[in-house]
Each structure stands twice: as structure tokens, then as C-alpha cells.
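Side project, low priority. Logging it here so it doesn't get lost.
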Amino acid sequence: MTNCLFCRIAKREIPASIVYEDERVLAFNDINPQAPTHVLVIPKRHVATLSDLTIEDDAMIGELARRAAAIAQERGIAASGFRTVFNTNRDAGQTVFHVHLHLLGGRHLDWPPG
């Protein structure tokens, strides 16, 4: 998708502070962090929302979750706790329509959120 912000980041058309990359996944620091650690973990393949996933995407979602946990471990926030969030569609706060997982941590996170 040519106008997707995250597709353009994955293609290096727009700069980002990249934390991790492999052939399927890209992780980068959020430009408007809501916690000391706020990393976005995305699939390189464009899927607009969780509602658009198919059974073939199960492994991809698992990869995003595993990568978020690994980054939390690397950042030293795994033991104290971290939050992973998928915002899906506008009312949930999704502003970029490319599936992405928010990894938040490094401070106390209240519940319920928002």
C-alpha cells in the first residue's frame, strides 16, 4: 500500500528509530511515546486491522508478540512488567491502518487504560 505510513517506514522511505528488523517484522520507537519504552512492532506485510486477519496470519501475530516480549527483556522491563496493545479501528484509537503492536513499559501502567 503506497500511502501507508508504516509500509513506507518498512521500505525506508521515511526514517524511524529502528529497534529490530528481520525479513517479516520491524520494530521502532514511537515518535510520541506514552511510556519510557514505547515501541511499535509491525509486520512488513500490509494488513490494515486485526479485523482483516485470516488464519494464515496466526503465525505473524505470534511473531509480533514474541518480538515484543524479547524487546521488553532486552530493555530490562520484562521482570517489572510491560503492556502490549493492539488498537483496532478508530474508536479504539487506531490512527495508522497497518496492524501494529504497542509495547509499553518502564513505568507503572494504570488499569483500566484510557
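Brief comment: The mean pLDDT is 96.
Revisit when time allows.
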